[in-house]
Amino acid sequence: MTQRDEDTTAVSFTGAVRAFGSVRAVDGVDLRIGRGETVALLGRNGAGKSTTIGMLLGLYPPDAGGVELFGSEPERAVRAGRVGAMLQDARPVPRVTVGELVGFVASRYPAPMPVSRALELAGISALAGRRVDRLSGGQVQRVRFAVALAGDPSLLVLDEPTAALDVEARHVFWESMRGYARRGHTVLFSTHYLEEADSFADRIVVMDRGRIVADGTGEELRRAAGGSLVCVDLAGRTTDGLALLPGVRSLEVAGDRVRLRTDDSDATVIALAELGAIRRLEVAPASLDDAFLALTSSATSGRPPRGAGNCANNHDAPAPESAPLTPSSTAKSTAKAL
Ligand SMILES: Nc1ncnc2c1ncn2[C@@H]1O[C@H](COP(=O)(O)OP(=O)(O)OP(=O)(O)O)[C@@H](O)[C@H]1O
């Protein structure tokens, strides 16, 4: 790494590998995050996101390759108070109040932010005098955010930060995050919420089976996954030959309706018209859900993914706001790529 790279790089993974027994949780990851960037780490359960975050914090030394924070080993950056983390499995400390906990954590850092400021940013000023072990799951999650902020770190690392939050609390959380990022801080967060990744990150890094399978803006990911969806009723015909039509990358069947993922919707539509297969024909741009499903390993046949816009099966209910993409929902919604 050159001096200039060191000056502009917050996080650097080079061919990083970490295995647990026979499972290669992180399998050759190369990733650079520039200072001031907000990056989302997206992937199904078990994709390797938490292990990546653990490596970044120095909790899991790499079996091969390297990980650096601000140009040195992670432990050093963590010890210097340059990193604030919010992990999934942190337990509430018994018997202390929120203010005491955040104050204690802040006192361990060389240049902390005022406790009142950390509480305010996390939206929990009113909880300062409450005992941490008597809070709701969503409130504890916000306390953990305040703890991560307490040292006024240059890099915030958040593992599924909004997992236990209701819709309103998620909005408050992201507003705080935006404010923090705007001050030039670097943020890396993992999430199952595609909309959150799209709305709040400068870049989305998609992991699958320990590897990075895509890295770019939401728009770039949509394009990489195949631009458009063409949907049409089968009207009793089979899908024979449809996968071979011009532009078509894959197809999915839901009842009597077929969805073609295509790089060239015009050519696909013309070919369908030549076959006389144009009943209830619709063309729609691929959604981020579609991109995610195309970029990660797809599962079984079934309903079209949520967020497929006008090209979804007309009988499908609309997607709930910011629904998380969990294996159970993807297994139901992922269609077979042929
Ligand atoms: N401490 C561990 N011991 C054994 N296997 C582990 C350990 N930590 C993770 N793994 C395995 O490594 C793989 C990646 O797990 P990881 O927790 O990094 O995924 P993830 O993307 O964060 O998943 P989730 O979204 O469910 O939190 C999984 O197969 C997991 O079972």
Automatic annotation (TrEMBL):
GO molecular function annotation: ATP binding; ATP hydrolysis activity
Topology term for the membrane: Peripheral membrane protein
Region: Disordered, residue numbers: 299-338
Major localization class: membrane
GO cellular component, one term: plasma membrane
This protein's name: ABC-2 type transport system ATP-binding protein
Biased composition regions of type Polar residues, renumbered to the chain: 325-338
Compartment(s) of residence: Cell membrane
Organism from which the protein derives: Streptomyces murinus
CDD domains linked: ABC_DR_subfamily_A (cd03230)
Keyword Ligase: no
Top-rank lineage group of the source organism: Bacteria
Alphabetical list of InterPro entries matching this protein: AAA+_ATPase, ABC_transporter-like_ATP-bd, ABC_transporter_ATP-binding, DrrA1/2-like_C, P-loop_NTPase
GO biological process, one term: response to antibiotic
Record keywords, A-Z: Antibiotic resistance, ATP-binding, Nucleotide-binding, Transport
